[in-house]
Design brief:
- It contains seven helices and six strands, in the order H-H-H-H-H-E-E-H-H-E-E-E-E.
- By secondary structure, the chain is α+β, with helices and mostly antiparallel strands.
- The chain has three domains: about 1-110; about 120-165, no CATH class; about 165-205, no CATH class.
- The chain has a two-stranded antiparallel ribbon with strand order 1-2.
- Strand 5 and strand 6 (about 200-205) form a beta hairpin.
- Helix 4 (about 75-90) packs antiparallel against helix 5 (about 95-110).
- It is globular, with a radius of gyration of 19 Å.
- It starts with a helix and ends in a 13-residue tail after the last strand.
Length: about 220
């Protein structure tokens, strides 16, 4: 056991979560925390390998996953973390369900559909999985990772986060407020003002973070 590494992981994970609790009001602290955690985690893994349960305890291993889950600035490193964490889970050093969350994160960043439906988007007043491979068999895949049915997950997230709300933008011509369900990160969507017919294209940065269970 490495108590100093465990303590630092927990400290950084606590800051990660606190910043995300404030994200609706101000996203800049989230970006700052992530930018600070990324090189630190890279150095830790270069020196020690994946921080598993034997090295940093159950809570420290969870904290390491959380930092990797939010290492979106470096997709190649995030993919490397997934490889290491998958190997660790096979040895009982990491959680299979947390591997599933990181798998979905990495796949979507690579432009592929997710496997377990952990990454969500607001659509028409409901939380829905983003691009998902073979939705009809997702519960089978989730069960192998120790996750409950997708319907229960969506209901739990709706209870935790409340119903999603559309974004609002102002029409450049008439000033009317337009409600918009934003596209997935990296995608574009054409919108039209219902009052005057003005049109524009909206998009979401690839760095935008979708809702998932990583905050809890």
């Amino acid at each position: 056991m490495n108590p100093d590494l465990r303590a630092e992981l927990l400290r950084r994970a606590a800051r990660d979560q606190e910043a995300r609790r404030q994200a609706e009001r101000d996203w800049e602290p989230v970006a700052a925390v992530d930018a600070e955690n990324l090189p630190w985690l890279q150095q830790v893994i270069a020196e020690t390998g994946w921080p598993g349960r034997s090295l940093v305890g159950e809570d420290g291993a969870h904290a390491a996953w959380l930092l990797a889950q939010h290492a979106d600035r470096d997709p190649a490193f995030q993919r490397a973390c997934l490889t290491l964490m998958t190997e660790a889970a096979g040895q009982g050093e990491a959680s299979p369900s947390e591997v599933a969350y990181l798998t979905d994160r990495v796949l979507l960043a690579e432009g592929q559909p997710q496997e377990y439906g952990t990454q969500l988007a607001g659509r028409d007043g409901r939380w829905q999985p983003r691009q998902l491979r073979d939705p009809g068999t997702v519960d089978q895949r989730r069960a192998t990772a120790g996750l409950g049915p997708i319907a229960d997950y969506l209901a739990g997230m709706a209870s935790q986060l409340g119903p999603p709300k559309p974004a609002e933008i102002s029409c450049a011509d008439c000033g009317a407020t337009i409600a918009v369900w934003l596209p997935d990160p990296g995608e574009e969507q054409d919108i039209t003002c219902p009052d005057c017919g003005w049109t524009t294209t909206v998009w979401v940065s690839d760095s935008a973070e979708p809702p998932d269970g990583a905050r809890s």
